[in-house]
Amino acid sequence: MDFPKKVRWMQDILPEAHKYHAFLKKVFRHELRKNWFKRITTPVLEQKSLFTSAVWAWTDVVDKEMYNLIDKKGRELVLKPESTAPIMRAYIENDMLSEPQPVFLYYVEPHFRYDRPQKWRYRQFFQVWAEIIGESDPILDAQLIYIGYTVLNKIGLEKDFKIKINSIWTSKDRQKYLEELTSFYENKKHLLSEDALRKLSTNPLRLLDTKVEDEIILANEAPKISKFLKKESKEHYAKVKEYLDLLWVPYEEDHKLVRWLDYYCHTVWEFVDNSWRSQDAFGWGGRYDMLSKKIGHSEEIPAVGFAFGMERLVEAITSKWVTLRNKDSIDLYFIQLWDEAKKAVLPLTLAAREAWINTQASLWTPSLKAQMKKANRLEAKFVVMVWVMEVNSWIYQVRDMVAWTQEEVKKDDLINYIIWKVWKENLNFYCPAKDLIIKN
Ligand code: HAM
């Protein structure tokens, strides 16, 4: 039997990369929580109809890229390819409309797309999303752009990205623009590739974000959405720009920046990677006031949000000359050389960990040499060797691996001795269980 390898274009995120994923998550979480966002998780599986009803026009995501499955009762389900539709579903289904508005939500989750294999496009990828639902004020669009801008700056990418923004239609001005755009391309059909012709007949907006050189030239000449915007859209856009200026957020306007999912309206923006790596986006966002009605709600619910690709951000950070502070450095390492020693070391290891001392011991390793090697590799600050004599006398030899000194310490004093030696400031006092308050 062939060894069953991982599914193509899915990723194993190994511990080294995970450090960066965790770092990113923490930075995003910190910024978002400061701005009142609360975390939400929606299921990995959703009804297929949630996505097919949300998307009016032909798109790759719905047409070709969904992982479909049928459950035992014959229901059509999909691994979620994106989360705007699920988050709006969750907002409506959980009656968040009755909470103070707007509702600020964020999540860090995997998404699944049967995407064409290419650099930085995976079939399972992690994203951080932030959404503000229930309010249409343009100040929220600007605030979201500001949060993305702040995070990218804080994670060391300040020189690697630019922000592109545009204002697209509302449901009122969209149709007129689509007609103009289609008639522009109809006259140039002979210049279009087969793929572009398909886009023209299914979703002409997609012709604007082409990567094909000749088609980019055409897209530059194509009618601009700005000419078709109604007063409401123009005012909204002007306000977003005013707030961005106020917050000193630099941006470029790009009329070709559109979204071919037809529930987007007003502001769209992109955080473009402008480094030598690529011209792709680290993330993008937009307003999607028209989505709630598309998925069957009676009212339009204003909403705006963004999504960042974690893998791309990790790639961008690690391609630089950076490292992360090592929070796993070992304060204390026990070496044991006998079954009774093992029994003495096990409770001590656990007690030291409870006292926030980062402690390790290879209790499963019999060889002294192998244990010593591991202590060295882990760069343990203090090593305690426990053998027959130590077990019987309750006095331990503590070796300072940095100063190359050794001291005798009574077993009962060992934990306090190490705390005193590594200094309280260096201990990691993180204790999540303390957040649980028992009500009387
Ligand atoms: P999206 O198309 O998933 O967003 O793109 C967001 C970011 O996720 C992209 O800029 C890219 O960095 C990353 N990304 C997208 N596809 C892949 C992939 N196959 N592999 C690796 N990374 C990927 C949305 O779907 C929107 N609905 C964004 C949004 C949030 N709108 C409102 N809220």
Structural class designation? alpha+beta
Calculate Rg over CA atoms.
28 Å
Helix content: 25-40%
**Sheet of most strands:** 8 strands, mixed
Average predicted local confidence, pLDDT: 90
Ligands in the model, by name, code or SMILES, are: histidyl-adenosine monophosphate
Spans of at least 5 consecutive residues with low confidence: none
Count of β-strands: 16
Q: What gap, in angstroms, lies between the N and C termini?
A: 59 Å
Taking strands numbered 1, 2, ... along the chain, how are they ordered across the largest sheet? 1-5-6-11-10-9-7-8
Q: In one word, what is the shape?
A: elongated
Name the beta content range: 15-25%
Give me the number of helical elements.
15
Question: How would you explain this protein's 3D organization?
Answer:
The longest helix has 20 residues, at 15-34. By secondary structure, the protein is an alpha+beta fold. The model has no long low-confidence stretch (mean pLDDT 90). The strands form three sheets. Strands 1-5-6-11-10-9-7-8 form an eight-stranded mixed sheet. Strands 13-12-14-15-16 form a five-stranded mixed sheet, with helices on both faces. Strands 2-4-3 form a three-stranded antiparallel sheet. It is built from 15 helices and 16 strands. It is elongated, with a radius of gyration of 28 Å. The protein has helices at 15-34, 48-54, 60-63, 84-93, 138-154, 171-186, 194-202, 213-221, 231-246, 291-294, 310-318, 339-354, 368-377, 388-393, 414-422; strands at 38-39, 45-47, 67-70, 76-79, 103-112, 124-133, 161-168, 252-253, 265-273, 281-287, 303-309, 332-336, 359-361, 382-386, 395-400, 405-410. Strand 12, helix 12 (339-354) and strand 13 form a beta-alpha-beta unit. Histidyl-adenosine monophosphate is lined by residues 82, 84, 113, 115, 120-122, 125, 127, 129, 131, 281-286, 288, 305-309, 311-312.
